[in-house]
């Protein structure tokens, strides 16, 4: 019985030592600084371009042509932490110029924006290259506009104004830059500061020809942005023209977030000082005590070999189980086709915050799908965690061997896989937009029914996918599970299965 207790204690000790403490990766503050621009960390869309370290957002086109373009930081930035319910504060500073080759025509301006989408290119004209004119009700963004043309359609008060826009180009509040002696379209280099303090629920915008920040803001808005800031958003600039030759350039930019405090569990060692143990004088041992010690010695002499053998049996059993697990993983690995890369379990666990419930995107017949954010690359993916059943493993192998070989513009791409610690994990391309069922039903209930042109495009996209799966790909795939919840809408209102 005593040996059994020691063995159980030893096994428990082994399990504790082999287990690792969870590495909680919470949202982290960022600090970006671009004294000049390179293509390494930015994405250019539309008519934007890079020349001599300066980003141009619109091109010099002959009247009455129009232009729109945008630039953004490659990686999404954390603005909200679901676990701690903390919303970040942020501060940005940038220098820009708006010049006009033809003074007789001007407009429309530029905007600094935060958006959950990194692919949408907005329309020219009064839309500032920020939003698509055909999807005004679906745009989600926070923007500071530097408008050079009065557009009555968006209730602009005048030319040369700065305004705060949230999900709409009708500004919440505006201020005329001329009142501070700054002509937005004069062609001079202008420096802007935008500060948001979440604690004070206040957004302030400063403007100056100088590199020194003014003491008084041009525009101050009391607003709680925590209702609009998503967990991750892209930051950048957009601009547009409409029948004019206005040029919009960004020369430098810095951006940072504040307020996140990463919490990592720490093991506090319990140290006991030698001086805390009281010294005791030796106690004389009687003959009966000697006989008792001899019996203990004899028992230990017999017990230790038996205990050692038991430990060997335990370690042998653990080794066999581990070997079988490795062999199983190798068998699964040998089934793979080239293409998707192998992820480590630690990497996926960290990216999903330990598969936290707040990261769940949905549930399927064969597992749960989680949103994963990889801090090293700044990318977002969808991780499918298969159920721990034989059927789950079979489905896992089937998806790897078939889906990895499929290549179609309307199919979500498989990016990787992981078979560690008894887990079967698939990593897919992340689709940020709504699923078809939400657009068809929930949006309609809110008074925004899906237009028939979009319905037609979705139907054509779906038919194209089925034709590819059933007839065109090398290994025929019969889907048999087409449903609206499994259809993701692309940024151009296309279809992804």
Automatic annotation (TrEMBL):
Entry keyword annotation includes Lyase: no
Pfam families xrefs: Lectin_legB, Pkinase
Compartment list: Membrane
Transmembrane segments annotated in the record for this chain: 295-320
Leader sequence segment: 1-27
Chief localization: membrane
Residues that, per the record, bind ATP: 384
Boundaries of every Protein kinase domain copy: 355-497
Keywords: ATP-binding, Kinase, Lectin, Membrane, Nucleotide-binding, Receptor, Signal, Transferase, Transmembrane, Transmembrane helix
Top-level taxon of the source organism: Eukaryota
Family of this protein: In the C-terminal section; belongs to the protein kinase superfamily. Ser/Thr protein kinase family.
Protein name per UniProt: L-type lectin-domain containing receptor kinase S.7
């Amino acid at each position: 019985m005593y040996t059994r207790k020691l063995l159980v204690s030893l096994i428990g000790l082994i399990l504790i030592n082999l287990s690792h403490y969870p590495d909680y990766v919470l949202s982290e503050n960022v600090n970006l600084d671009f004294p000049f621009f390179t293509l390494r960390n930015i994405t250019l869309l539309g008519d934007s371009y890079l020349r001599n370290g300066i980003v141009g957002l619109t091109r010099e086109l002959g009247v009455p042509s129009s232009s729109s373009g945008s630039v953004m930081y490659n990686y999404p930035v954390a603005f909200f932490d679901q676990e701690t319910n903390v919303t970040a504060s942020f501060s940005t500073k940038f220098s820009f110029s708006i010049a006009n080759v033809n003074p007789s025509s001007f407009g429309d301006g530029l905007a600094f924006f935060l958006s959950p989408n990194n692919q949408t290119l907005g329309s020219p004209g009064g839309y500032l290259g920020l939003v698509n004119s055909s999807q005004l009700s679906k745009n989600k963004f926070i923007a500071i506009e530097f408008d050079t043309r009065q557009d009555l359609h968006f209730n602009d008060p005048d030319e040369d104004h700065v305004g705060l826009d949230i999900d709409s180009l009708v500004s919440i509040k505006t201020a005329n830059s001329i009142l501070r002696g700054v002509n937005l379209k004069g062609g001079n280099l202008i420096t802007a500061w935008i500060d948001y303090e979440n604690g004070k629920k206040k957004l302030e915008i400063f403007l100056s020809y100088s590199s020194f920040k003014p003491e008084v803001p041009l525009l101050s808005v009391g607003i709680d942005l925590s209702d609009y800031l998503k967990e991750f958003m892209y930051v950048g600039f957009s601009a547009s023209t409409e029948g004019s030759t206005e040029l919009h350039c960004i020369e430098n930019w810095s951006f940072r977030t504040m307020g996140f405090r990463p919490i990592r569990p720490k093991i506090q060692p319990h140290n006991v000082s030698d001086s805390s143990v009281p010294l005791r004088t030796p106690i004389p041992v009687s003959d009966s005590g000697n006989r008792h010690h001899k019996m203990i010695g004899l028992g230990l002499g017999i017990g230790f070999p038996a205990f050692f053998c038991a430990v060997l049996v335990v370690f042998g059993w653990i080794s066999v189980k581990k070997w079988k697990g490795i062999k199983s993983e190798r068998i699964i690995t040998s089934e793979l086709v080239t293409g998707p890369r192998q992820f480590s379990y630690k990497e996926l666990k960290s990216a999903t915050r330990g598969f936290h419930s707040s990261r769940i995107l949905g549930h399927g017949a064969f597992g749960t799908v989680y949103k994963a954010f990889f801090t090293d690359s700044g990318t977002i993916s969808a991780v499918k965690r298969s159920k721990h059943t034989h059927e789950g493993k079979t489905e896992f192998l089937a998806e790897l061997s078939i889906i990895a070989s499929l290549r179609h513009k309307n199919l979500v791409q498989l990016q990787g896989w992981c078979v560690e610690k008894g887990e079967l994990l698939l990593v897919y391309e992340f689709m940020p937009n709504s699923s078809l069922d939400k657009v068809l039903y929930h949006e309609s209930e809110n008074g925004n029914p899906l237009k028939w042109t979009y319905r037609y495009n979705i139907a054509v996209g779906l038919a194209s996918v089925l034709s590819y799966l059933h007839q065109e790909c090398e290994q025929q795939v019969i889907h048999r599970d087409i449903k609206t919840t499994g259809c993701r809408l692309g940024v151009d209102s296309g279809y992804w299965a």
